[in-house]
Write a structure and sequence with these properties.
Blueprint (H helix, E strand, L loop, with lengths): L2 H8 L4 E4 L5 H11 L4 E2 L5 H5 L6 E4 L3 H7 L3 E5 L8 H11 L3 E6 L2 H10 L4 E5 L11 H7 L7 E5 L5 H10 L3 E4 L8 H10 L6
Helix pairs in contact: 2-9
């Protein structure tokens, strides 16, 4: 078990993972102090963030060998980028050798079925990016969660704006959430503390 999967499986409740942008080094230090159990950054920011925090680092796409060398612990790959025959299997095998977690980003039941037929992933990521007009926040995660086999770690990439949403996902069985937008919040630390520990934590 790698550092990322260990963090989200053994943490206290659901893991809140802020997606960092801008002054990523400073934000990473603040995230660690606020109780985040991992941080997500762009591939080009991994090395700089690794120098500032001991938290597991998640990134999206990129070369697994370069990411592992820079200090990443997990990589999110979009289903569309690995749907070609053999591509997913090849990437997953390489990441396994590098002790790098792979979370496959899927948005439809058919994509999940294909992933499960081809590999035995430890982590699955339900993406709510690009919601349809008739889809509400958390709806896609909660619908697709029922199709995920028991024993898998589930990460949701949903629009989170309140602690109530965090609790709803935790009760449903989600292990971690990637939270966008926090890096632009002038009250980054206070907002993150509230999402991790609840509104009373900041009192």
């Amino acid at each position: 078990m790698s550092r990322f999967s260990e963090a989200i499986s053994e943490g206290d409740g659901i893991s809140v993972i802020p997606v960092l942008e801008g002054d990523v080094e400073a934000l990473a230090a603040l995230a660690e102090a606020a109780g985040a159990e991992a941080v997500a950054v762009r591939a080009e920011d991994v090395e700089r963030v690794r120098a500032r925090t001991a938290l597991p680092i998640v990134t999206r796409d990129g070369d697994p060998e370069a990411l592992a060398a820079a200090g990443a612990d997990a990589v999110v790959v979009a289903y569309e980028s690995v749907s070609d025959e053999g591509r997913l299997e090849e990437l997953y095998a390489l990441a396994w050798e590098l002790d790098l977690d792979v979370a496959v980003d899927f948005r439809q039941e058919e994509e999940l079925e294909d992933v499960l037929e081809r590999i035995d992933p430890e982590i699955l990521l339900i993406s709510e990016r690009g919601l349809d007009e008739d889809e509400e926040d958390l709806e896609r995660t909660l619908d697709l969660l029922a199709d995920v086999p028991a024993g898998k770690l589930v990460v949701s990439e949903a629009r989170i704006v309140s602690y109530e949403q965090v609790l709803a996902l935790e009760r449903a069985g989600v292990d971690a959430i990637l939270v966008h937008g926090l890096a632009r919040d002038p009250e980054f630390s206070a907002t993150l503390v509230e999402l991790v520990h609840g509104p009373e934590a900041g009192l």
